[in-house]
């Protein structure tokens, strides 16, 4: 038989997942929960600690326990995950809209980001990512044509990484990332379902092949309420 705190934990989790308790809503106090479930303070604290450990609530000193928004998608900060892989992992109803596809001459900014000269040519791919009917990511990809000789709009609609690795036989190895929160642009608000948000999370990726060749620069712009960026860190003594 489950311990009492597990039973309380499961009931609160069920209420959160079924939206009987909303994100940012404050849970009843420990005293109120003790009376409701007719258990000790220790039992309630065990249930609340488990809820916090599993990402359902946050406990704020002198204020109480507040429900977190569980309807966010985890993006690994230190990993390289394509949108298609993310959609498959979370079983999402998703769609990619290719807003712009072109082969361009790089401007000064792109030459600096990709460490190339004006003689190089660059694939420019602007894609809107839609999840559950909402446009929430704007991806801007710039790929050095020296390494990806051919590309099509259909490939961009499906998965560029899948094409590069499975069709071209190249191995994507690692990326350097920069994550910032910026003021949303008019383009962001035009292309994404932005509601009333003024800020956007911008992830810049410098992506390298197995031989440490920089071949792609990406700017991925995320609506701030739909994602959390996660990583695992171990303290080094």
UniProtKB/TrEMBL annotation:
- The residues covered by the HTH gntR-type domain are 2-70
Domain of life (superkingdom): Bacteria
Query: What are the protein's UniProt keywords?
Result: DNA-binding, Transcription, Transcription regulation
- Mind telling me which PROSITE patterns this protein's record contains? HTH_GNTR
Q: Which SMART domains match?
A: HTH_GNTR, UTRA
What SUPFAM superfamilies does UniProt report for this protein, alphabetically?
A: Chorismate lyase-like (SSF64288), Winged helix' DNA-binding domain (SSF46785)
Entry's Gene3D superfamilies?
Chorismate lyase-like, Winged helix-like DNA-binding domain superfamily/Winged helix DNA-binding domain
Q: Per UniProt, what is one Pfam family of this protein?
A: UTRA
Q: Is the keyword Cell division in the record? A: no
Q: Which NCBIfam families match?
A: trehalos_R_Bsub (TIGR02404)
Which PANTHER family does this UniProt record tie to the protein? HTH-TYPE TRANSCRIPTIONAL REGULATOR TRER (PTHR44846:SF12), MANNOSYL-D-GLYCERATE TRANSPORT/METABOLISM SYSTEM REPRESSOR MNGR-RELATED (PTHR44846)
Q: What is this protein called?
A: Trehalose operon repressor
Origin organism is: Acetoanaerobium pronyense
